[in-house]
Design goal:
The structure holds 2 protein chains of 2 kinds. Chain A has helices at residues 19-29, 44-59, 72-84, 95-110, 138-143, 159-176, 186-189, 251-266, 269-272, 293-307, 325-332, 347-355, 372-383; strands at residues 2-7, 13-18, 34-37, 65-68, 89-93, 115-123, 129-133, 152-154, 179-185, 192-197, 200-205, 275-278, 284-290, 312-317, 319-321, 335-342, 360-363. Chain A is an alpha/beta fold. Chain A has 2 domains: 2-205, Thiamin diphosphate (ThDP)-binding fold, Pyr/PP domains (Rossmann fold), CATH 3.40.50; 276-383, Rossmann fold (3-Layer(aba) Sandwich), CATH 3.40.50.920. Chain B has one domain (3-289): Rossmann fold (3-Layer(aba) Sandwich). An 8-stranded mixed β-sheet of chain B has the order 2-1-3-4-6-5-7-8, sandwiched between helices. Chain B is globular, with a radius of gyration of 18 Å. The model of chain B has no long low-confidence stretch (mean pLDDT 96). The chains are: A alpha/beta, B alpha/beta.
Chain lengths: 385, 293
């Protein structure tokens, strides 16, 4: 229970991996012992790596379960079931599968079930372009399930972060008893680059109840029992009280539950929100906000702008939701222009504009990544206005 | 049905990008000769969509609709109902692979069958998710190696047997269920014709050998189809309203081992595994033909 340091599953050292493979390795390092999935491009390599690596680890006597399910609804539902049996569960998919998972993601939120969902985004809507990158699921990840809730969504920008952010996704899921979405994209998922696997990994395991501790209330993040541990456990998607009894017409139970589901995330934004600032010291002509693969081009563009004498900086969002408003707000004070670059029609731009209405967007939705040069041109253009 | 009386018109054209030896193109080309021009084709995600439905290699000469993965049965229900309401008799055909039929699509398929929608549903069955990289499906036979059921030293391929999808559909007691093979062309065409002419829900299930996923010589696709039938791994029958009305019985039953040989996906088979698959085949044989194999 709580924080602990464990040895890496892979022998430490430098590896040359694909983003999807690094994600699987991160999950294994974080203690993921249940994977249920369904084949879909461009997340298929995660399924495959988990299948093969779990088989290897079982050979060494470890208990790790892999199931190829009949669809994505089955995949996420099996993960939720496994989580209530005490497992650390993950599934991975892409847009169409993510859409199918939404009801059960909402279910995991309502029942406070830790589970990690990887969405390797591809160009949509609908089938779209299965092998092309996009960042079009940002708002779906935040608001896709019905009802009011807060959720945690992370955005890796490299193969190394496909490893570390998957670990962080598990830690946050366990810490806050919430589904955590790793919102990767095809470009990062299929990227191959070197990655250093450290000897140890810091992981968080969910709190377990002592005698007569309610599993759905009392504490801000209640301890989570598992089936088979001797508790009288009721789990329901209906509104419930702290003991899990269905309370389907009680205004107090509804208000208390939703308030806690939202509050347990919102009040810990400082712990959850992670950003990286590059060249952000002093007064800025242009602050670029980017995340995922796009942030790589943004960093290159910022360096090009710097070489041209433009005071450009990069704010890279590692956490998308809850939105790192504090970081944006504090940099807004000394940035003359703000530019949000993303492979969608301006989903995160809209959120930034809630804080900084004059922020502008650079968007691309043709299934191609945003290139440094085009972004530099945009930085240059808005810096001289 | 005389093959030489078939229309010369090709409604699924050459020039698509299927792998050499793919079983699906001869299946759809032949079936379209029977169905004719007044047909709408629906497909979810599958190889057939990718190799026959992508510009500039679109092979279909009839209206073609690509829908989401899980709902072929529901999509064809909607279009058929709307057309019938307008008095149109256009044939509405859904073509899904085994993944889209056995696994993700079974709910919509079962609903359409139960409502006896006036549609034809075709499953072209290549026994794994070939389109996304040869992952196992509910149709993958026992022991077959796929990327998610690799043949290792401890787990030798898929542990579960193939689901009997045609029997599940027969249990819906729909007007017509037929299982088919392209190696048995006359039988194939007669069943397609019957499916075209019957009203209500019709289910056609066709074995579709896949040289890429099964790992066999692409010149042997028809032979693989034939051996599948002769060994009892695949059985050809027709059923009307749940009752079996016609069964094709191979003249000489070959041991399942003869079918497995030449397919890389079964290369790791031990004698015990061959025996297990033979046991499964014999059991099915007895159930279908009502006699000891």
């Amino acid at each position: 229970m709580g924080w602990t340091t464990v040895k890496s599953a892979l022998p430490p050292g430098r590896y040359f991996l694909q983003g999807d493979e690094a994600c699987a390795e991160g999950a294994i390092a974080a203690g993921c012992n249940f994977y249920a999935g369904y084949p879909i491009t461009p997340a298929g390599e995660i399924l495959l790596r988990m299948c093969h690596r779990f088989a290897e680890l079982r050979e060494r006597g470890e208990h790790r379960v892999f199931i190829q399910m009949e669809d994505e609804i089955g995949s996420i539902a099996a993960c939720i079931g496994a989580s209530w049996a005490g497992a650390k569960a993950m599934t991975a998919t892409s847009g169409p599968g993510f859409s199918l998972m939404l009801e059960n993601i909402g279910y995991a939120i309502g029942t406070e079930t830790p589970v990690v969902i990887v969405d390797v985004q591809r160009a949509g809507p609908t089938t779209g372009q299965a092998t092309r990158p996009a960042q079009g699921d940002v708002m779906q990840a935040r608001f896709g399930a019905h009802g009011d809730y807060e959720i945690i969504v992370l955005s890796p920008w490299s193969v190394a972060e496909m490893y570390t952010e998957t670990i962080r996704a598990f830690n946050l899921a366990e810490r806050f008893r919430v589904p955590v979405i790793l919102l990767a994209d095809e470009a990062v998922g299929h990227l191959r680059e070197s990655i250093d696997i450290p000897p140890e990994v810091k992981i968080y395991n969910r709190a377990k109840p002592k005698d007569r501790e309610p599993p759905f209330g009392g504490a801000e993040v209640p301890p989570m029992p598992a089936f088979g541990e001797g508790h009288k456990l009721l789990v329901t998607g209906s509104t419930h009280d702290e003991w899990g009894y269905r309370r389907t017409v009680s205004p107090e139970a509804q208000a208390t539950l939703v308030g806690r589901l939202v509050g347990k995330i919102a009040r810990h934004r400082g712990e959850i929100c992670a950003v990286e600032e590059r060249f952000c010291e002093g007064e800025l002509d242009v602050l670029v906000i980017a995340y995922g693969f796009t942030a790589r081009s943004a960093l290159a563009a910022v360096k090009m702008a710097r070489a041209e004498g433009i005071a450009a900086g990069l704010l890279r969002l590692k956490t998308l939701w809850p939105f790192p408003a504090e970081a944006v707000r504090s940099l807004a004070g000394h940035s003359r222009r703000m530019l949000v670059a993303e492979m969608n029609q301006g989903q995160m731009l809209r959120e930034v504009q809630r804080l900084v209405p004059q922020a502008q967007g650079h968007n691309r939705t043709d299934g191609e990544v945003i290139e440094p040069k085009e972004l530099f041109d945009k930085i240059y253009k808005i810096s001289i206005i | 049905m005389n093959i030489k009386d078939l229309s010369d018109e090709i409604l699924f054209t050459p020039g698509h990008t299927a792998c050499a030896g793919c079983g699906a193109p001869p299946i759809v080309r032949n079936i379209m000769k029977i169905f004719g021009k007044d047909t709408i084709i629906y497909t979810p995600a599958n190889c057939l969509l990718v190799f026959g439905g992508t510009y500039p290699y679109l092979a279909w000469k009839v209206p073609y609709f690509h829908e989401a993965f899980e709902n072929t049965g529901a999509c064809i229900s909607g279009v058929a109902r709307a057309l019938r309401k307008q008095g149109k008799k256009t044939l509405v055909v859904g073509i899904a692979g085994d993944g889209g039929t056995y696994d993700i699509g079974i709910q919509a398929l079962s609903g359409a069958a139960e409502r006896n929608e006036d549609v034809i549903y075709i499953c072209y069955d290549n026994e794994a998710y070939m389109n996304t990289g040869i992952q196992r499906s509910g149709s993958t036979p026992y022991g077959a190696a796929t990327t998610t059921t690799p043949a290792g030293t401890k787990i030798p391929g898929k542990l579960d047997h193939k689901k009997d999808m045609a029997e599940i559909m027969r249990a819906h007691e729909v007007p017509y269920v037929a299982t088919m093979s392209i190696a048995h062309q006359r039988d194939f065409l007669e069943k397609a014709k019957k499916a075209r002419d019957v009203e209500g829900f019709r289910y056609l299930h066709i074995i579709s050998p896949c040289p890429t996923g099964w790992r066999f010589d692409p010149s042997l696709t028809i032979e693989m189809s034939r051996k599948a039938v002769d060994s009892g791994m695949w059985t050809l029958f027709e059923a009307e309203y749940g009752e079996i009305t016609n069964i094709y019985k191979p003249k000489k039953k070959i041991p399942v081992k003869e079918y497995l040989m030449g397919q890389g996906r079964f290369r790791h088979f031990t004698p015990e595994m061959v025996e297990e698959l033979q046991r499964w085949v014999d059991h099915k044989w007895k159930r279908i033909y009502g006699e000891e194999p």
